[in-house]
Amino acid sequence: MRTVRTRAAICLSITLTCASRAFALNPALDVNQYAHTAWTIGQGLLSSRSSSIAQTPDGYLWLGTESDLLRFDGVRTVRWQPHGDERLPSTNITGLLVTRDGRLWIGTSAGLASWKDGRLVTYPELAGQVVVALTEDEPGTVWAGSIAIPHGRLCAIRSAVQCVEEEGRFGNGVFSLFEERDALWVGAATGLWRWSPGSPTRYALPMPTSAISDLIRINNGPLLIAMRDGLMQFVDGKLDPYLLQDVERPFDATRLLQDRDGDLWIGTARRGLVHVHQGRVDIFTRSDGLSGESISALYEDREGNIWVATNEGVDRFREVPVTTISRRQGLPVDEAFSVLPARDGSVWVATPAAVTRWTAGRPTVHGTREGLPDDHVGSLFEDSAGRVLAATLRGIAAFERGRFVPLRSVSSRVVYGIVEERPGVLWIDDQELGLIQIVGEEVVKRIPWSALGRDDHATAIVADRAQNGLWVGFYNGGVAFLQGGAIRASYGTADGLGAGRVSELQVDRDGALWAATAGGLSRIKDHRIATLTTKNGLPCDTVHWTIADLDRSLWSLTACGLVRISSAELAAWIADPERSVKFTLFDVSDGVRTFTIPIGLSPPAASLSDGRLWFATPNGVGVVDPRHLPFNTLPPPVHIEEIVADRKTYSAATNANGRVRLPPRVHDLQIDYTALSLVTAEKVRFRYKLEGFDRDWQDVGNRRQAFYTDLPPRQYRFRVVAANNSGVWNEAGAAVDFVIAPAYYQTRWFLALSVGAVLAVVWAAHRVRLRVVEKHEREISALNERLMKAQEQERIRIAGELHDSVMQEMLAVTMMLGTAKRRIPDDSDAKATLEKVQQKLIQVGTDIRQLSHDLHPPALQDSGLPSAVQTYCEQFTTSSGIAVSCDADDGVRDLSRGAALALFRIVQEALGNAAKHARAKQITVRLARSDGTVSLAVADDGVGFDPDRLGGSGGLGLIMMRERATQLNGKFEFDSAPGRGTTIRVVIPFR
Question: 770, 954 in Cβ contact below 8 A?
């Protein structure tokens, strides 16, 4: 049987059975060695006192307070309210329980309610009662105990509610319930009851005024009873005090919890939190950081965290990888400078107040009373003879026969390190005095820093037995190798060494030197240096120290935490110093505390024989067990909580269509999501993807909100996955489908209408353009027609002038020459000359007559273009001797006069070119009308020509023919090649 404090563990029993014990707290630790977080009232988590805690299967933690029911995801709380008109009996929450079916039972100051799958159920039988005790038995019956005046109640809730009817049996209330397999234990005002059907048994309390606030059975032992007057145990019907070591009575116990490791946690009314492990007791109070002294609830969640509700807030305790040994465990102060494991199995810790020796887990503090020159102890060292040397501000002392004996011959101040070059030969690194060599107990050599060419001092030193020398690292950077007190080699940043102060040096088993510097971790081997920095993946450059564990993994304390690099990863980097390394970082949330500036005292860390690593911190000694690191194997449940569109909130619950419908024109979209891992919520990592918008997953670290702007209207699916603090991913994650409705101007019908309107406008514009073009063409055609008419009229005028004036004058001259010739004797030379002049004039007249005929062809005027072309072709054959085949379609007769004249001139020009340049034997002329066009083709079988070399008069003729065709809005083409003749084609619109 289980109480209200352990109910969530029942609900998650399957999960917890599969989970590793690493989720439980380490019972060997004191409470103050756990990671502790306190949320006090008014700091945002809660606004009033909490009295109950529970966890539902979805991972949410529920906090019942005096004013609200809060849902907590590890980062923020949300005030929970039922849907619609449903209401809790009261907002003063007095008890919470989660049953195996996942139902949340809510006890209030005015009754009981339960909630599951969005439906709230209230129970009238307990209306007006203060429900403070809830539990579930093995068959699944829920028991509820209440407080009321004059009588409290005990009710069993199955399919119906049955309450104990006897008035006064439990006095004014039932305060606690504990269910076992064969009985229900009831703590009431009238005493302790063993409630079984039909035969309840009452055990009277010796102190009737003392209420039983909680009940629990520990490890099959006695039944423990938390009472105002102390912690009692019930054995064989007797009630006796349950004594705790070092805890004085009266012990005002309020709450009891047994964690999954069997340890007992006790909440008190005035003494804080008590933790009991195998009889050992430690107490955590407000002076230790507890939010309040009075505890009202204890709870262990599914990951093993312990939650404590106090009068001033809520606290969480969890195990961390790195625990701290402090003054509570035996150190003289909460600060350590160096840690030395001795060969006898003891561990020495130097502090500002003394040195502490740990033997078999027991600390012994040694100070000036035990022979130390000063209580301020810095560096430690064990020589080959087994002596432990402790350096203080007033000298060095050796531990011999249970006491420290000062080395009188050695005066030192701030010692950064002590090393043994060979048995019996020690070197001391002193900030002010330089390097001091001791043989036995006598100083044999002092080397000031200036003798090494330095104006600073060494901050790290290590012996290199393989090379019989010393490595020294300096405050301003750089390392040097010394033999016989002289520098044999030195390295600096120009050689690849990390820049800045060298805080620690180590020589590994392979003979490589590791230098922890402010600019990275450097490795020197065979005069080659490789430095590991943030460029290789380190979280930060400043390295304080390094140490290898038993598995040869490298641990380094850096400015941002403790870094672990596995041996395989380290070997890969050594083989390829340019590659990035994978590491595990332990930071403040994991219990790591580090000095802002490295102290530099040695040794800063130690590897013990059991594999644990101890290291000095500002809070004491940090302890980490590399082989037993807590690992959280529970993937965190992921939830999408709400969608905020333009500052209006929408529930992430889908509608009947399986989608959340958002309004049109959403500008700013925010999606809130969470993952329920309560160990370290700040280390939960998220990736999300908006399907339909994002191409890839977005890695957003620990951010719990997604933002989008101006998403187009369509359907979307938002998916989010999360990983817990150990990097275990919940790949299934959570998803929500939503749709952004289109505005009217984004709908398909509007788009279709818009496209139709645009097409209509374009079509109308096209028609207008066509009309404009047609009008323009008509105007151009009319202009060309008028131009050609004007040209023709000018030709007619010129032809008339030539015929009527020039020809008549030339005829008169010819006749005068004839009269003159008859008057000259036949044997006269002048008569022969006049004969030649007369013949020349007759020839000129003939040419002028032909020119007049060409300028104004009568056949074109009288018979039309087809007849004129036929006639001209015949005349051209007669005059040139070249055979011309002419085919003129009579349908061209109606062609306008201007166009007819232009085509006739093209025929004249084409035939003339063929006669002058082509040396053709056959010419074909084709004039035809078809589909509103008139086409003319003139082809010859002459020598042809290369169009690229066109020039001279022939080129001018082609240009004139092209211009005539262009004036008629027609096309002009010609095709010619050397040896293939020439073809000219003209196509014009029929007018």
Answer: no
Q: Which residues contact 67 (CB under 8 A, 6 or more apart)?
A: 47, 48, 91, 92
* C-alpha separations of 204 from 172, 190, 251, 301 in Å: 15, 7, 20, 35
For residue 160, the Cα-to-chain-centroid distance in whole angstroms is 52
**Token pair listed for 740:** 């952004």
The answer to whether 76 and 53 are in contact (CB under 8 A) is no
pLDDT in tens, 635-653: 999 999 999 999 999 988 7
Asked whether the beta carbons of 358 and 346 are under 8 A apart, the reply is yes
Cα 200 from Cα 205, distance rounded (Å)? 16
Closest CA to 219 of 251, 183, 256: 256
Closest to 265 measured CA to CA, from 17, 27, 96 = 27
The band of 541, judged by pLDDT with boundaries at 50, 70 and 90, is very high
Q: What is the pLDDT of residues 152-171, one digit of tens each?
A: 899 999 989 999 867 778 88
- Is the Cβ–Cβ distance between 541 and 533 less than 8 Å? yes
Residue type, 513: L
Residue 831, C-beta contacts closer than 8 angstroms, at least 6 positions apart: 821, 824, 825
> Using CB atoms within 10 A of its CB, is residue 105 exposed (0-12), middle (13-18) or buried (19+)?
buried
Nearest-5° angle of CA 209, CA 210, CA 214?
145
Take residue 883 and report the two structure tokens written for it: 């055979």
- Give me the residue label for tokens 């009472």: 227
b/e 329-343 (16+ beta carbons within 10 angstroms → b): bbbbebbbbbbbbbe
pLDDT tens-digit map of 815-851: 677 777 777 777 777 777 777 777 777 777 666 665 6
pTM of the model: 0.73
Predicted local distance difference test score (pLDDT) of residue 182: 80
Gap between the Cα atoms of 858 and 878, Å rounded: 18
* Closest of 893, 908, 804 to residue 855, by C-alpha: 908
Q: How far apart are CA 62 and CA 85, in angstroms?
A: 22
Segment holding 194, helix H or strand E: strand 191-195
- State the pLDDT confidence band at 137, using cuts at 50, 70 and 90: very high
CA 490 to mean position of chain CA atoms: 44
